[in-house]
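Researcher: I'd like a structural prediction for the single chain below. Treat it as a standalone chain; there are no partners to consider.
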Amino acid sequence: MRLYILFIYLILVGSAYAFANEVDVILVRSDLPQEFAVAQAYSHLSGIPIVTTPSQELSEEAREQLRGYISLGYRNLVIIGGEKAVSLEVQREIDQLGYVTRRIAEADRYGTAATFAKEFYSNSEGAILLYGESSENLLLAMRLSSATGYPILFVRRDGVPAAVKDALASLHVKRVLLFPQGLEANVKEELSGYEVIQVEEGFRLPEPRKLGLPLAFVAGFALGMLSVLAYLRARKIKQRLPYEILSEDEERVIKAIASEGGRLTQDALPEKTGFSRPKISRIVKELVERGIIEKVPKGRTHELTIKKEFYRE
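Model: Treating it as a single chain, here is the predicted structure.
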């Protein structure tokens, strides 16, 4: 009974985010890693699916996903990026599928990420800042965002853009997790009004963010059991993610499981990957926490099942 209540709670929390922001699906260009990181971090927090596509035409994979979601009653779609990122032709085709589309787009990725944060995160105790012209720390930034619930924002090498400063003020941010790599010293100086924690070697991920019970009650009254039904049907469509969000070691583990039909016992992984058992345990723990694989007891070991579909960009 407790597991059932927890199951309903998690469904309704995710549905509450979608209801509050009037968005069912997020679409982002497939070869823009910064924009994808912003969207993926929020997807982990809210449960709202992401669809990726090339800039000038809707890919067949994206088209199939969108048809599947709209068959479940999903209607409101947000495009991240301007017309150079995702063309008007792509938007028109999505409109023809029956979606109500809108864009979150500013002059550059700094402004776009800031606007996204202000709209979808409301108040946030903290924010994650990193150099906007490098993808070096995007994977860790996504993990941090998933664990803390903080939005991802980008700064320039020599300063904090005005749009980012405005977002920090609007969100009432008190704490900043800052990746200093590639940044000049004055960036930290411009953040002197905040508690700045530098993400460097030895930094440890915080415990996963726990959502409060009152939000579950609000979601329950707002959406009821219709949200549960929609969620159960949506689970049949696996979210597709690029391999680029995985580290090299994580990708090797995922491919080892995939080679056995997407399901494999954990004690079989050392032989298939060449990794030690402690290393396998660390990787599996991280993948489970990120919702990429499912782990259930099986005898003296655990059975691992891949919950996502991966593709190479």
